[in-house]
Amino acid sequence: MSTASYEEALERLAADDPRIAVLTAENRASIRGLSTRLGGRFVDVGIAEQTLVGLAAGLAARGRVPVVHALAAFLTMRAFEFIRTDVAIAHLPVKLVGAVPGILSEANGPTHQALEDVALMRGIPGMGVFCPADLDDMLLGLPAVVADPSPFYVRFNARPAAWSHAPFVLGRLETVLGTLEGEDVHIFVAGGLATETFEAAEILIRRGLTVGLSNVRTLEPFDSEAALSALENAAIAVTVEDHFLRGGLHTAIAELLVESGLSRPLLPIGFRGRWFKPGLLADVLRTEDLTSDAIAERVRDFHSACVTERAS
Amino acid sequence: VRRRIVRLATDGGCFLGASLSCADLVVYLYSRFLRFSGPEDPARDLLLLSKGHDVPALYATLAELGYLPEERLENHLSTSDSIYWHPNGSVPGVEFHSGSLGHLLSVGAGMALDARWRGEDRRVVVLAGDGELDEGSMWEGLLVASSLGLENLVLAVDRNGLQANGRTEEILPLEPLEAKFEAFGCPPIRIDGHDFAALDGAFSAVPLVGGRPSVVIAETVRGKGLPSIEGRADRWFCDFTAREVELLLRELDGAHEAELTSPELTVR
């Protein structure tokens, strides 16, 4: 596991590339040390997300690569039109880093729950969407995401890694578990529930199922080819995301199934039509049936139901 | 420049009233204030049209100066070109696209910040409408630009007193504007935006306050130059017949007011 921090990784990138500027709307938790170490190339505009994004677009139009930080809910929603209109229409290389997305907002409440951020960003033409599984995954992907000429949304996730990651290839998913001989279940995960999903897969394997697991690192560009191969190779599929079921990973897989003409039973795990009950992470996972055990149970029940249906 | 603008107010039309109010300001900026020897000049000052729908004033000025081929204005509203009701960034001379109000002050601040980081003496002028000052993002942007000390940034307000449907002071009062800007650290100059000597007086005093963005309030008249539409809330977006355009062009030359029968358009 990596011992580096996001802040150190970003500082290294900035040291190598003078185009990089670090901006924040008073969201300093992950970049506190950079205010002094980057000197002038660190700008805190205060709690002003619209101006943050507009300023970044102006810098990018003049050749900079701004890496912009704000809470995911406010970055993607308060400043949405600035992202869509100033950054995306001009296809500027602004990197938007959303803090405490999805389940990571813990006890803040629905105001802070970015559960539609991926849907919003994925809906913008040309916008990349990176949903790292954990800190290691985020640090593996960061250099490629920053170097890419496209605008990118990064769902900040500094949770400890549950497995040792494969190298990051922009636009490709990571096959974490898989067998070519056919799987009972293939699980796709994006973002903050990667650890619980990985552990759920291990539980299911111990119980005798063959399980594949794909870490869908980028929802955009979306690795349709690998996802379709995984779907073809499995009897049933599951998506796990700390996001509303509309517009995120489940939607992407469902779109792929419809477009390809392939038919697979698909269990979506995420938030359906409501915000989650705020609390500390462990309590939220329990309350929302998102612990490793609960996910494994839900997948097993779905698998059993599919098998029973097929037999009858 | 006004003739070129008026010619765009047909076959689909344009925001004629709003373009004529800032035409003198745009012409002044390109002829006196901006250091600009063409859209590709790497050291050029930057003008951003934040209100956007005044883009005929920019295109007409660029055509007058020879930077925009005349024939492209004939492509106005054609899907085969990019000359439409709001600025498209691919047109040479358009430094940034716009159309949604309240965006380019923060974008301009980013450009001004980049210039400062590079040690350039480049200036950035953001031309905004007065109705645009209804947008909170204008004030948020000014608060940030002021705190960043962007002395190379100028906000020019086309104060024609009208927004889409009526007088700014009746829809959402902005006055006292001086006090508002002063409270943001940017005491403005208010001048007659159709008087070149007054414009020169204001812009040659930039930066108005050391270490702060400058604000110039240009008092203007919507539809300036065409008495038949001047100061009228209902002649903002205009789509006239070819005959009416001919009459308006004569009106620019001092003929009596054109008789306009095309319906007043309300597009907002």
Protein architecture, described:
The complex is a heterodimer of chains A (about 300) and B (about 270). Chain A is of the alpha/beta class and about 300 residues long. In chain A, strand 5, helix 7 and strand 6 form a beta-alpha-beta unit. Chain B is of the alpha/beta class and about 270 residues long. In chain B, helix 10 links the parallel strand 6 and strand 7. In chain B, helix 3 crosses helix 10 and helix 6 runs parallel beside helix 7. Chains A and B meet through helix 3 and helix 5 of A and helix 6 and helix 7 of B.
What is the element layout, followed by pairings?
The complex is a heterodimer of chains A (312) and B (268).
Chain A: H1 6-16, E1 20-24, H2 34-37, E2 42-44, H3 49-61, E3 65-71, H4 72-78, H5 80-88, E4 95-99, H6 117-122, E5 128-130, H7 135-147, E6 152-155, E7 174-177, E8 183-190, H8 194-206, E9 211-215, E10 218-220, H9 224-232, E11 234-244, H10 249-260, E12 266-271, H11 281-287, H12 292-311
Parallel strand pairs in A: 1-2, 1-3, 3-4, 4-6, 5-6, 8-9, 8-11, 11-12
Antiparallel strand pairs in A: 5-10, 7-9
Helix pairs in contact in A: 1-7, 3-5, 8-12, 9-10
Chain B: H1 2-7, H2 16-21, H3 23-33, E1 46-49, H4 55-65, H5 70-73, H6 104-117, E2 124-129, H7 136-147, E3 153-159, E4 162-163, E5 166-167, H8 168-171, H9 177-183, E6 189-192, H10 196-203, E7 214-219, H11 242-252
Parallel strand pairs in B: 1-2, 2-3, 3-7, 6-7
Antiparallel strand pairs in B: 4-5
Question: How would you describe this structure in keywords?
Answer:
heterodimer, A: 312 residues, alpha/beta, 5-stranded mixed sheet, 12 strands, 40% helix, B: 268 residues, 5-stranded parallel sheet, 11 helices, 35% helix, globular
